[in-house]
Design brief:
Blueprint (H helix, E strand, L loop, with lengths): L6 H23 L5 H8 L3 H4 L1 H24 L1 H20 L4 H15 L2 H12 L4 H30 L2 H21 L12 H20 L7 H22 L9 H5 L1 H29 L6 H8 L1 H20 L1 H23 L6 H28 L6 H25 L5 H18 L13
Length: about 450
């Protein structure tokens, strides 16, 4: 059992797991700032080059329930190590990509590899520290914030100095270092018998894939809108089929009653809203800073740094605040702050000459709101009945990163219309809907874990 490990080895294992989280998050956002440079190098539009961002998020989101199940079935540490190893290989492939199509394919493979990191790291942290779920999720949220903070400025600086391809070389070396730390420090866990209901797994994966592909393709002008909406409609129908075949099925990938349980549902929708806000900001703000504001890529990365840095710095404080006042109240506060911050950023960034000194503190305000949502949402998901299932933690992570994918697609859809104010108004609307759902149902009694 986890309780038999001495404190020092457990601390080393925790740092290795959090380092894997940082690497995974950085891999997601590290090319956002140099998007214009990549587009120019390949002779493509920025709108089309956003596919390199969307591909990562799409494959990451779609496969997380299955990688969560794989962790239960074959051991979380073993599957996590395999995922991180694959991540290193795909970073090398991206560095060598001769055209945009192969870069997009490499980024999709990176997303597939990264899909094992969020649910498996969350599961291992809770397994090793079952009495401290809020504290562990605060540490996990801080690692996410560090990755979100480090990715854009590192990507901008490396691209300015050595070219954007060097970004993937740096990430490959860092990923291999993390892999070695995981293998040396993280204890092996026992695989758990976990039946796979194949029809449900196929329906969940394909439904999520069709839905996110349809959302992503809405922003791509060569793709007919009718096809995009058809993909979205078919994806929703397939996901409904997943719920129908899983309901009352003893071997279901995730028991449907646990998905619908109020704590898990509230936490998951709030996480979607927070990641929608982050995905929107990660793409829209660097484009504003390197476009209308006239900043270089490295300067733009440094200016954007304040948003994820705020998230990282506040994560531990938010964890303590959640323990004292309850995660639900903290989560609602965060959603309100996101609404206010998004509206203010939309007005400033949407002006003809965006004022960077005014934009930077507003980005910090938006980061504060995201910090107040991220930790309580993750805590609620892991403490719910669904939190005992690796596939359910994968579903939670799927919805989180679906929010990021949808946010990036939302930006790509409106960028040609020069509608920055409308972009951030969308963030406010999504957050208001999540805030309304946060009032649904009482807090259930936490379940004991085996």
């Amino acid at each position: 059992m986890a309780e038999t490990h001495s404190p020092e080895p457990r601390a080393l294992a925790r740092y290795a797991l959090l380092a894997a989280t940082v690497i995974g998050t950085m891999s997601n956002n590290i090319i956002n700032v140099p998007l214009r440079s990549i587009a120019q190098d390949y002779g493509q539009t920025v709108q089309r080059t956003v596919l390199a961002v969307l591909a990562f998020s799409l494959f990451l989101a779609v496969t997380m329930p299955l990688t969560g199940w794989l962790g239960d079935r074959f051991g979380r540490r073993r599957v996590l190590a395999a995922a991180v190893g694959l991540m290193a290989l795909t970073q090398v492939a991206a560095a060598l990509a001769p055209n945009l199509e192969l870069l997009v394919a490499s980024r999709g493979a990176q997303g597939l590899a990264c899909s094992g990191i969020p649910p498996l790291v969350m599961g291992i942290l809770i397994w090793m520290h079952p009495a401290q779920p809020a504290r562990m999720m605060a540490a996990w949220a801080a690692a996410n914030g560090i990755g979100q903070a480090a990715g854009p400025p590192i990507g901008g600086v490396v691209a300015d100095w050595f070219g954007w391809r060097a970004i993937f070389v740096v990430m490959a070396v860092a990923t291999l270092t993390v892999l070695a730390a995981l293998l040396l420090a993280v204890p092996a866990d026992r695989p758990r018998p976990s039946a796979l209901h194949l029809p449900g797994a196929i329906l969940l994966t394909s439904g999520a894939g069709l839905l996110l592909a349809g959302i992503s393709s809405l922003s791509q002008s060569p793709v007919p809108r009718l096809l995009s909406w058809t993909l979205i409609g078919v994806g929703l129908v397939v996901l409904l089929g997943f719920l129908l075949v899983s309901r009352g099925n003893a071997s279901a990938l995730i028991p449907v009653r646990f998905i619908a349980e109020t704590r898990f549902a509230r936490s998951t929708v709030a996480a979607f809203a927070q990641m929608f806000a982050l995905g929107t900001a990660l793409v829209a703000i660097p484009l504003v800073l390197t476009g209308a504001a006239g900043l270089s890529t490295s300067t733009a990365g440094a200016a954007f740094f304040v948003l994820p840095l705020t998230m990282a710095v506040l994560a531990t404080f938010v964890g303590r605040l959640s323990e004292r006042h309850g995660p639900r109240r903290v989560l609602r506060t965060g959603l309100v702050v996101i609404v206010v911050g998004a509206c203010a950023i939309g007005l400033v960034a949407g002006s003809e000459h965006p004022r960077v000194p005014l934009l930077v503190p507003l980005l910090s305000l938006l980061g504060l709101g995201m910090a107040f949502v991220q930790t309580p949402a993750a805590t609620g998901a892991t403490r719910s009945p669904a939190g005992s299932y690796g596939a359910a933690l994968g579903l939670f992570s799927l919805v989180r990163f679906a929010g990021s994918t949808t946010g990036a697609a939302w930006v790509a859809l409106l960028v040609p219309r020069d509608a920055t104010t409308a972009i951030f108004a969308g963030v406010a609307v999504i957050s208001v809907l999540a805030l309304a759902l946060s009032f649904a149902g009482p807090d259930p009694v936490p379940v004991a874990r085996g």
